[in-house]
Write a structure and sequence with these properties.
- The complex is a heterotrimer of chains A (about 300), B (about 375) and C (about 290).
- Chain A has about 300 residues and is mainly alpha-helical.
- In chain A, helix 1 runs antiparallel to helix 13 and helix 4 crosses helix 7.
- Chain B folds into 2 domains: about 230 residues, P-loop containing nucleotide triphosphate hydrolases (Rossmann fold), CATH 3.40.50; about 120 residues, Nucleic acid-binding proteins (OB fold (Dihydrolipoamide Acetyltransferase, E2P)), CATH 2.40.50.
- Chain B has a 6-stranded mixed β-sheet with strand order 6-7-8-3-9-10, sandwiched between helices. A 5-stranded antiparallel β-sheet of chain B has the order 13-12-11-14-21. In chain B, strands 2-1-4-5 form a 4-stranded antiparallel β-sheet, covered by helices on one side.
- In chain B, a hairpin with a 2-residue loop joins strand 9 and strand 10.
- Chain B is elongated and about 75 Å long.
- In chain C, helix 1 crosses helix 13, helix 3 packs across helix 13 and helix 4 crosses helix 10.
- The chains are: A mainly alpha (about 300), B alpha+beta (about 375), C mainly alpha (about 290).
Chain lengths: ~300, ~375, ~290
C-alpha cells in the first residue's frame, strides 16, 4: 500500500505477509477437514452409497427414504423431547442455583465445585454411573426396598416409554452446574447500583429479580441456550453408555441413528442425509448467534 | 526543506477520505502540537508519521528521507502513547531498554543510556519495579524515558497527559516543556486540550474534519484565528461571536450591534480595511478578556470602546468574575476583575478592547484579513 | 443477620435463608450421590454389591476391583485391563492439547493484532467449526485417515482432535488478546520488535490465565471424547472406548465393582486437572468466551 515501492523496505512487506502465513495452516486444516468434509458429506447424501462411498447421484432419494423410516422419526421425536427438557431443566436449575448462591451464602466456595465437577467427567463415565444407579435390580429402587420402602418403584431405564427421561436426568446432572456458573458470572457482572436503585424504588425481592435481574441476564440465557442446544443435538456418548439406544430403539437419537446406519447397517447415503439434517439444525441455532457475536465485537 | 516534512498527505479508508492534503513542515527542535476535537484526524496523522498506518497519498520525510512504507522501527522515531503502553511483564529498566535491545545495541551501552535517562527523569529508584507497581505520573515518566533512551530524530506524543488527574497533568506539562527546552528535541504532540497546545508548542496545527484549519505560532492562532472554528476551539471560555453590521461614523468603520436592552451600540474598528465591508453583515469576534470592566481594560490599547449592557448572570471564579449577557442576540461572556461588583439584572458599563477584535465573513466563516 | 452488613441488594429473612441452604444442600447431594456410590462400591467385593445396599460403606474393604480394572479385566477379547488404553489416551492427549493450544494462541494473536481484510470471516468460519455435529465429518474423515495411512493410530487421533479443537482455542485466545492493549504492540513495533518477537516477548508472558483455560478445555474434551475414539481408534483405542467395552461386555458375570473402578480411573485425570486448576478455568472461561 505504500505509495512508493522503492522506498518501502523489505522487512515491512514481509511483516505484512507473516501473519497470513502463520494463520494459513489452521485455515487450510479448517477448509479441508471442516468445510470440505461438510461438502463431501452433503454430496454423499445425494448418492447411492451403501457400505463404501459411491459417486452416482440419485437425487433426494436418501432424504425421502430417511423421512419414511420409523427409526428416524423415533430419533427426531426423542431429540425434540430430550432437547426441550434438557434445555429447560438445565436452565431452570442453573438459574435457581446461581440466584441462591448469590445470596451471600456461607460455604459457596465448597458448594460451587460440587455443582461443577460433573462437567469434568466424560459422558461415558456419567452414563456408567447413572445406568447402574437407575437399575431397579441393584440401584435406587433396590436400596429403597432394603430401607423398608417396599412399594417404591423406579424402573424408567427398562421402560420403553420412560427411558428417554433417564437420559435427560443424567444429562442434566452433567451440565446444569456449568449453566449455574454461567448465570452466576452474569449475576456477578450486574452493576450493584442498579439493584440499589431498584430497592429504593420499592421493588420487592421477587419483582427485583423478575423485572430487573433476569432481564439483565439475557446474554447469559442466550449463551446457555446455544451451548445446551448444540450439546443436545450432538448427544451420542451418553446414550451409548446409559441405554445403548434401548430398550429396543426407545432412546435412539439422530446422532446414534447416523452412526448405526452409516457404519453398522451400511446405508451410508441415508446416514449422510441424517448428518446433513443435524448440521442444518445446528446451523439454524448458531448462525444468528455467531452473526451477532461477530458484529458486536468489531 | 524541513526536518520533518509532511507534504500533500492524504488518508482514506476505502472510499472515505479522512485526511485531506495535509502540508506541514517542521524544523529541527520545533515543538509542533496537533490539536482538534476527537475524530479530526490528528491521531491518524501521528500514526502515519510513526509508520503505524499506511499513507494513502503524498509523502512524509524525515531528514530528507521519504518514509512511506518504511517500518516504524527504522524511522528513528520514538512514541509516547496515551495509555503509556508499558510492557506489563518487564521491569521499568527492561521497558526502557527494550528498543535498544531490539536494535542490537550492546548491553554496556544500553545500561549507560538507561542510567543517564533515569537520572534525568528521576527514575533511578524505580528501575526494578514492574509497571503495575507505579503511580500514573511515574508510568508517564517511564513512557517518556523509554522514548528518550532511543535518542530519536522525532518524538511523537499521543495525548500523553489525558490519563492523569488535573493537578498532575499541569505538573507534567511543565516537565515536558522543561525537557524540551533542555534537550532541544523535535516533537510532534497530539492533544485535544487547547491549553496544552497553547502552553507547550512552538507551533500549532489546529485540525478539524481532516483539514488543517490553521498552522501558526500559539500567538497567531490565538490572536488572529483563521476562521470561526479555530476562534471558538482555542481559548477558554471561547471567543464570543456576535452578529453585527458595518457602518461609517465620523469617517471610520464601526461595528453596529444591538444590546440586551434593544439599544444600538457602535464600536469603532481598529482595522482600516473594514471600510470595504460598510453596509454588510459580519460576525464580530471578541475574546472574553477583551470585554472587561473599565478599570480592568488593557492600558496599552489605543482603542477602548464603551458599552453599556444589562447583565444576566455573574459567576465569581476566584481570579476573575465571568459575566454572561446577551449581545447581538447571542450569549456573550465577559471577563471582569475578581472584585468587580455586578448585579444581575442591572446594566453595567463595559470596556471593549477593539484592538483585539476580529471580524469574520458570515458566508465563508473566514477571518477578514487586516 | 444485621441489615447493615448485608451488601447484596436482597435481604432475606431467617426462614427463607434456612430454605435456601436446604435447597443448596439437596442439590449438592444430587451431584455427589452417583459419584459417591461409584467410589464406595468400587471398594466392595462383588457379592456385597449384588446382595447388599449400594449406599452402605463396604464391610470388607478391597482394592482388588481397582487392580483388576487396571491390569487384568477383559477389554473386548484381551484380558489386558485398562492400562494400555490409559497410555493410549495419554499419548494422544498431550500432543493434541499442545498443538491445538499453540495454534490457537498464534491465531488469536494474528486475528486481533494483525488484522487484515476478511479476518472476521475466517474467525466466523473457525468459530462455527467448533459447533458442528461431528457426524457430518465422520465418513470423509474415515476415508482421509485411511489414505494418509494414519487410520486407527494415535497420530490420526491427534490430527482429528487438533483440527476440531483449534476453533475453540482460537476463540479463547482471540477474546483474551482483544482486551490486550494494541498500543503495546505498536510500542513494540516502534521499538523494533517483529511479528514473532512481539508475540514471544510481549503477549505470551501475560497469557498464563487463558493458557490454563485452553489447556484444561482441550484436555477435558480430548480425554473425554468417545465418538472419534470409537470411530478411528482402531488399534489405539482411548480410555473412554475401552471403558465402554468393559462395562457393556455381555459375556460372563457383570463385575460391577470392576466397572466402577474403571470408570473412576477414566475420570481421574480430568477430575485431578479440575481440582487443581478448576478455579482458574471457570474464571477464565467466564471472562473469555461466554460473556454476553
Amino acid at each position: 500500500m505504500a505509495s512508493r515501492a522503492d522506498d518501502a523496505d523489505f522487512r515491512t512487506k514481509l511483516q505484512e505477509w507473516i501473519p497470513k502465513l502463520v494463520l494459513s495452516p489452521s485455515v487450510a486444516l479448517m477448509l479441508v477437514f471442516v468445510y470440505g468434509f461438510i461438502l463431501y458429506t452433503i454430496y454423499l447424501s445425494f448418492t447411492g452409497s451403501k457400505m463404501l462411498p459411491k459417486y452416482d447421484l440419485i437425487g433426494i432419494d436418501n432424504y425421502v427414504r430417511l423421512w419414511g423410516l420409523s427409526a428416524w422419526w423415533t430419533a427426531v421425536s426423542n431429540l425434540a423431547v430430550f432437547a426441550t427438557l434438557y434445555i429447560t431443566i438445565c436452565t431452570a436449575i442453573g438459574l435457581t442455583l446461581a440466584i441462591l448462591l448469590d445470596q451471600k451464602i456461607r460455604g459457596e466456595g465448597m458448594l460451587r465445585p460440587i455443582y461443577l465437577y460433573p462437567m469434568a467427567l466424560s459422558f461415558i463415565v456419567t452414563g456408567t454411573a447413572w445406568k447402574w444407579f437407575l437399575d431397579p435390580g441393584i440401584g435406587l429402587e433396590h436400596t429403597m426396598h432394603l430401607w423398608g420402602w417396599e412399594s417404591f418403584e423406579f424402573g424408567w431405564i427398562k421402560d420403553r416409554n420412560m427411558a428417554i427421561y433417564t437420559i435427560v436426568i443424567a444429562a442434566v446432572w452433567q451440565t446444569s452446574g456449568f449453566v449455574m456458573a454461567m448465570f452466576l458470572a452474569g449475576l456477578r457482572g450486574i452493576d450493584n447500583e442498579i439493584l440499589k436503585a431498584a430497592q429504593i424504588d420499592g421493588a420487592s425481592n421477587w419483582s427485583l429479580y423478575r423485572r430487573i435481574v433476569i432481564p439483565l441476564l439475557r446474554p447469559a440465557f442466550l449463551s446457555a441456550f446455544v451451548i445446551l442446544a448444540h450439546l443436545a443435538v450432538k448427544s451420542y456418548d451418553l446414550v451409548i453408555a446409559l441405554t445403548g439406544g434401548g430398550p429396543g430403539r426407545a432412546t435412539e437419537l439422530p446422532a446414534t441413528f447416523m452412526y448405526s446406519y452409516t457404519f453398522t447397517r451400511n446405508q451410508m447415503g441415508t446416514g449422510a442425509a441424517s448428518a446433513v439434517i443435524m448440521l442444518m439444525t445446528i446451523a439454524a441455532i448458531m448462525m444468528p448467534y455467531l452473526y451477532s457475536e461477530l458484529k458486536e465485537k468489531k | 526543506m524541513g526536518f520533518l516534512d509532511i507534504s500533500n498527505v492524504t488518508k482514506s479508508y476505502g472510499k472515505t477520505e479522512v485526511l485531506h492534503r495535509v502540508d506541514i513542515g517542521v524544523e529541527e527542535g520545533e515543538f509542533l502540537v496537533l490539536v482538534g476535537p476527537s475524530g479530526c484526524g490528528k491521531s491518524t496523522l501521528l500514526n502515519m508519521i510513526a509508520g503505524l498506518e499506511d499513507i494513502t497519498g503524498g509523502d512524509i520525510s524525515i531528514r530528507g528521507r521519504v518514509m512511506n512504507g518504511v517500518h516504524p522501527s527504522k524511522r528513528n522515531i520514538a512514541m509516547v502513547f496515551q495509555s503509556y503502553a508499558l510492557y506489563p511483564n518487564m521491569t521499568v529498566g527492561q521497558n526502557m531498554t527494550f528498543g535498544l535491545e531490539m536494535h542490537g545495541v550492546p548491553k554496556p551501552e544500553r545500561d549507560k543510556a538507561l542510567t543517564e535517562v533515569a537520572a534525568l527523569l528521576q527514575l533511578d529508584k524505580l528501575l526494578d519495579r514492574k509497571p503495575g507497581q507505579l503511580s500514573g505520573g511515574q508510568r508517564q515518566r517511564v513512557a517518556m524515558g523509554r522514548a528518550l533512551v532511543r535518542e530519536p530524530d522525532v518524538f511523537l506524543f499521543d495525548e500523553p497527559l489525558s490519563n492523569l488527574d488535573a493537578k498532575l497533568r499541569v505538573d507534567m506539562r511543565t516537565e515536558i516543556k522543561k525537557l524540551h527546552a533542555k534537550l532541544k528535541t523535535t516533537i510532534v504532540y497530539v492533544t485535544h486540550d487547547q491549553i496544552e497546545a497553547l502552553t507547550l508548542s512552538t507551533r500549532i496545527a489546529v485540525m478539524n474534519d481532516g483539514y488543517v484549519q490553521q498552522l501558526g505560532t500559539p500567538k497567531e492562532v490565538y490572536d488572529t484565528p483563521a476562521n470561526i472554528f479555530v476562534a471558538t476551539f482555542m481559548g477558554s471560555p471561547a471567543m464570543n461571536i456576535i452578529p453585527a453590521q458595518v457602518a461609517m461614523q465620523d469617517g471610520a468603520p464601526h461595528a453596529v450591534l444591538t444590546n440586551a436592552a434593544g439599544e444600538t451600540v457602535q464600536l469603532r474598528f481598529s482595522q482600516e480595511n473594514m471600510v470595504d465591508w460598510v453596509g454588510r453583515d459580519i460576525l464580530l469576534g471578541l475574546r472574553p478578556e477583551a470585554l472587561t470592566d473599565p478599570e480592568g481594560a488593557d492600558r496599552k490599547s489605543q482603542n477602548i470602546a464603551a458599552l453599556s449592557n444589562p447583565v444576566a448572570v455573574a459567576e465569581p471564579a476566584g481570579s476573575d468574575t465571568f459575566v454572561t449577557m446577551t449581545l447581538g442576540g447571542r450569549d456573550v461572556i465577559a471577563r471582569l476583575r475578581a472584585d468587580t461588583s455586578v448585579t444581575p439584572g442591572t446594566s453595567f458599563d463595559f470596556a471593549v478592547n477593539m484592538e483585539k477584535a476580529v471580524a469574520f465573513d458570515p458566508e465563508t466563516e473566514r477571518r477578514i484579513p487586516a | 443477620m444485621s441489615g447493615a452488613t448485608q451488601s447484596t441488594a436482597v435481604s432475606t429473612g431467617r426462614i427463607t435463608r434456612t430454605l435456601i441452604y436446604l435447597v443448596l444442600l439437596l442439590f449438592a447431594l444430587f451431584y455427589l450421590l452417583p459419584f459417591f456410590v461409584m467410589v464406595v462400591n468400587s471398594l466392595k467385593p462383588l457379592d456385597e454389591i449384588t446382595g447388599g445396599n449400594m449406599m452402605s460403606l463396604p464391610q470388607t474393604w478391597t482394592i482388588q476391583p481397582w487392580l483388576q480394572a487396571w491390569s487384568s479385566a477383559q477389554i473386548g477379547v484381551e484380558p489386558t485391563g485398562l492400562r494400555p488404553y490409559f497410555l493410549n489416551s495419554l499419548l494422544m492427549v498431550v500432543p493434541a492439547v499442545a498443538i491445538s493450544t499453540g495454534l490457537g494462541a498464534i491465531n488469536g494473536y494474528v486475528l486481533t493484532k494483525w488484522r487484515f481484510r476478511g479476518d472476521n470471516i475466517i474467525f466466523g468460519l473457525l468459530l462455527f467449526s467448533c459447533f458442528i455435529p461431528f457426524q457430518i465429518v465422520l465418513i470423509p474423515m474415515a476415508t482421509i485417515l485411511g489414505k494418509l495411512g494414519i487410520a486407527g493410530s494415535i497420530p490420526g487421533l491427534v490430527l482429528v482432535h487438533v483440527v476440531y479443537g483449534v476453533g475453540f482455542t482460537t476463540l479463547y485466545y482471540r477474546n483474551y488478546y482483544a482486551a490486550f492493549p494494541t498500543e503495546l504492540v505498536r510500542a513494540a513495533m516502534i521499538d523494533g520488535a517483529g511479528f514473532f518477537r512481539i508475540f514471544w516477548r510481549i503477549l505470551l508472558p501475560v497469557s498464563g490465565p487463558i493458557t490454563v483455560v485452553s489447556v484444561i478445555w482441550q484436555f477435558t474434551n480430548v480425554w473425554n471424547d468417545f465418538l472419534f475414539g470409537a470411530s478411528f481408534g482402531g488399534q489405539s483405542q482411548p480410555m473412554t472406548v475401552a471403558l465402554n467395552n468393559l462395562v457393556s461386555s455381555s459375556t460372563g458375570v457383570k463385575e460391577y465393582n470392576v466397572h466402577f473402578a474403571g470408570a473412576i480411573l477414566a475420570a481421574l485425570p480430568t477430575l485431578l486437572v479440575y481440582i487443581v486448576a478448576g478455579r482458574y478455568f471457570v474464571r477464565g472461561l467466564m471472562a473469555g468466551s461466554v460473556k454476553g
